[in-house]
Design brief:
Layout (H helix, E strand, L loop, with lengths): L1 E6 L11 E8 L9 E7 L4 E6 L8 H7 L5 E4 L2 H12 L6 E3 H8 L8 H9 L19 H12 L1 H14 L3 H9 L1 H9 L11
Parallel strand pairs: 1-4, 2-5, 5-6
Antiparallel strand pairs: 2-3, 3-4
Length: 203
């Protein structure tokens, strides 16, 4: 695995393919209180780009251009949170989007375990370490262990997408999954408007 750390934005000369795996690290899970600290990106190869977002930073033009490019599919695990954080802090609206957690919930109805670690273990035979999950992502300098942990969160998403797509096809649920993913921007807008606990489809 090759890690490339950038401060504030992507460099001009970085190239990505048609599917970009993305994850974020933040100071916490509260959209109103916590901030974005790191954005990880992978094109499916062994190279991972990590963009360190500085405190108070409100824009990353080259990152925004990549993530808002309609010709590239943006691949996440639990896209709902990452999309909301990217939109709130950097004003980035990512589309189109594919989410391995949504795919897992619709394809793997035999399980209630849909975390990234669970998916990697079952579908890829890969054991992910979560030792750095709750570490200080707002630190001025991130440790090598933190960077490697962050990179592992995007390194396997392309392979997971392939396996989950096959399962969705087998169960004839692919169109349903893609419709759910297309709804994500609206779900994110509800979250950011203060309706995170609202399910508008309940009685």
């Amino acid at each position: 695995m090759k890690l490339l750390l950038h401060r504030g934005d992507l460099p001009h000369d970085v190239e990505f393919g048609p599917v970009v795996a993305i994850d974020t690290e933040t100071t916490g899970l509260d959209l109103n209180r916590d901030r974005l600290c790191l954005v990880q990106l992978s094109d499916g190869s062994s190279t991972v780009h990590l963009v360190k977002i500085e405190r108070g930073q409100r824009a990353a033009p080259r990152l925004a251009a990549l993530l808002s490019d309609p010709s590239r599919l943006k691949l996440f695990h639990y896209a709902r949170f990452d999309l909301a954080m990217l939109r709130r802090q950097l004003g980035i609206l990512c589309q189109p989007v594919w989410c391995t957690k949504i795919a897992s919930k619709l394809a793997r109805t035999y399980s209630d375990r849909h975390g990234l670690k669970d998916l990697c273990r079952e579908l890829l035979g890969v054991e992910l370490s979560k030792n750095e999950q709750s570490s200080d992502w707002g630190a001025e300098e991130l440790s090598e262990a933190q960077l490697r942990y962050a990179a592992s969160d995007v390194l396997y998403l392309h392979a997971l997408k392939e396996r989950l797509e096959a399962m969705l096809e087998r169960e004839e649920r692919r169109a349903l999954a893609e419709a759910c993913m297309a709804f994500l921007p609206t779900r994110v807008a509800l979250d950011l408007a203060g309706f995170a606990d609202l399910d508008p489809f309940t009685h």
